[in-house]
Write a structure and sequence with these properties.
Layout (H helix, E strand, L loop, with lengths): L4 E5 L9 H13 L5 E4 L6 H10 L4 E6 L1 H8 L8 E6 L5 H5 L8 H7 L2 E9 L2 E3 L2 E7 L2 E4 L3 E5 L3 E6 L2 E2 L6 E2 L7 E7 L4 E3 L7 E2 L4 E5 L1 E14 L2 E20 L9
Parallel strand pairs: 1-2, 1-3, 3-4, 4-18
Antiparallel strand pairs: 5-6, 5-18, 7-10, 7-17, 8-9, 8-17, 9-14, 10-13, 11-12, 13-16, 15-16, 17-18
């Protein structure tokens, strides 16, 4: 057993349909010299306390086993700890695994074994970390960018704040999670976006506007509902910011953002 590794199993993996997969997974990890302590998430078990206990006992690599929803259960605190994160997706949704070039199933063990570690930026929505993106749909919100200018979806639309990228059913779009910037993508329902400083825009078309930012405010007179990664959020006001070079991740081949 490698004391530097701990594996966080999601609660849905207790289902008997996953038992053969877990047995094969643990056998493969042992053959690679990567077996370690196992912690199982339950409805009444605090994930943060579980991981902090592992860290106090010398764990340096925390491997999330489950799916993207499992990641949501640890991402809100994991960047604060002195650990490197690994990810073994065994079920859908696994869009973040695709962004990290990690295959689903036992093949993810080989990614752990190769130990290609990247140090990534992470975003913050209020006090919550996110890895991929924040998205608000059907909103008339205003985005205030770096205390410099603001954009308003006058006729409503979608506001995305990307760090690593966008996870979508029709394909995944990478953003640069190592440039110290977030990418805001604003897609109106109609052609109207109001802004006082067009020269600050990275790009503009009648259908989509993109800007980069280090920090900003999202304000709306109507309640907004959205997601930070897959975690549901709601409110009238949010702060958004970037934490550069905050999070060490074991991932697949070196990624390049899609421009």
């Amino acid at each position: 057993m490698n004391p530097a590794y701990a594996y966080i199993y999601d609660d849905f993996l207790v289902d008997s349909q996953y038992q053969d997969t877990l047995d094969a997974l643990e056998t493969r990890l042992a053959s690679l010299g990567l077996s370690g302590r196992i912690g199982r998430l339950t409805l009444f078990r605090n994930a943060k306390e579980l991981v902090e206990d592992f860290v106090r006992n010398g764990v340096k690599n925390v491997v999330v086993v489950g799916n993207d929803t499992t990641l949501d259960k640890v991402m809100w605190f994991l960047p604060e700890l002195p650990v490197t994160m690994g990810y073994i997706p065994l079920a859908e949704p696994s869009g973040i695994a695709r962004l990290l070039n990690i295959p689903t199933g036992l093949a993810a063990c080989d990614i752990l074994g190769a130990r290609l570690i990247e140090t990534l930026d992470v975003g913050k929505l209020n006090d919550r970390y996110f890895l991929s993106e924040v998205i608000f749909e059907n909103t008339t919100a205003s985005l205030f960018v770096d205390n410099t200018f603001h954009l308003t979806l006058m006729s409503g639309g979608t506001l995305e704040i990307r760090n690593l990228g966008r996870v979508a059913s029709l394909g995944d779009t990478l953003a640069d999670a190592q440039d110290g910037l977030l990418e805001a993508v604003i897609t109106p329902h109609g052609p109207h976006i109001k802004s006082r400083l067009w020269t600050k825009l990275k790009s503009f078309t009648s259908s989509q506007t993109k800007v980069t930012l280090k920090s900003g405010q999202i304000l709306s007179t109507q309640p907004m509902e959205g997601h930070a990664d897959r975690y549901a959020v709601s409110g009238f006001r949010f702060s958004v910011s970037i934490e550069p070079q905050k999070f060490r991740v074991i991932m697949g081949r070196r990624f390049k953002p899609v421009i």
